[in-house]
Amino acid sequence: MKVLFLIQGYSVAASRYRVLQYLPYLESNGVTATVSLYPRTLKANLQLFKNLPQYDIVFLQRKRFNQPRLGLLRRRANRIIYDFDDSVMYRNSKSKNPISQSRKQRFIQMIKASDFVIAGNDFLKNQVLPINANVETIPTSIDQERYGPKDYRIKKERVTLGWIGDHGSIHYLEKMRPIFEHLGERYLHVELKIVCDTFFDGERIKVVKKPWTSEEEITDLQSFDIGVMPLVDDPWSWGKCGLKIIQYQGVGVPVVCTPVGVNQDLVEDGVNGFWATKPEEWEEKLSILIEDPNLREKMGKEGRKKVIENYTRQVCAPRLYSILTRVAE
Questions:
Q1: Which pick of 75, 96, 187, 264 has the fewest CB atoms within 10 Å?
Q2: CATH code of the domain in which 163 resides
Q3: Which string of b and e fits 133-164 if b means at least 16 CB within 10 Å?
Q4: pTM attached to this predicted model
Q5: Rounded Cα gap, residues 326 and 60, in angstroms
Q6: How confident is the prediction for the chain on average, in pLDDT?
């Protein structure tokens, strides 16, 4: 089986966690995988469409082809699988109005043109079902061999509130600045660590600014004592697949999150973390964990247990292989 995977970039989280980490398993099961970035030039597009018939499946991660390229893709490709892990049919949380008819139409066209669709969560799956019944949910997952548990035997002077993500999502965290500043006043030993490519400053709380690298990603996650994932309650957030939480839990770190979308599935309130919506709830739940290292360890281990059972490469890779096999038949 020959499969062409089109991805956004080798360092893009969705590309790494929804395609690249699966390749060794797929190749060990006889899949001949070719990975390519989406074409940007006329020459690259012409080369892509020329080569499409040699592949049994073209696997598109997230990006939608618009017309007339989509029609040409459908005519040249033997089978098309579309994989997505965001509410691409809506505008993002920065927009005043989430509804976009052009986004919705591009999404519908892409789904209709696909032989199979893989959604990152059930909300996204339900957006597909009225258009195409050939859809399954595969959550974003991590490699449990790479994500080792945090060593709670190591004692620290500071309690680290941690957030990892890209520049497109840091606005969720920045809205929390007043809460972090107040916590910094109350607890002089608390710091906020941001692992990203863009940052903001704190006046009354120490902010550790750590540029993201693949090599230090796990070490950075293990340095967190509490992971945070704030969101807003809107259609864009409903489509998020909770990678931050899965990463925190994967290394055994407790989580405080906004109970929106898949966050409610990943975090069991009071078991492996806490839910928080209002500012006073965020401060209360973070304070509980700041003051109780034993609870942090207990909740962190519960979170890791949940991830190991449902959200690992080891669990999800066979499911992806099964879909590829069925679609190629």
A1: 96
A2: 3.40.50.2000
A3: ebbebbbbbbbbeebeebeeeeeeeebbbbbb
A4: 0.95
A5: 17
A6: 97
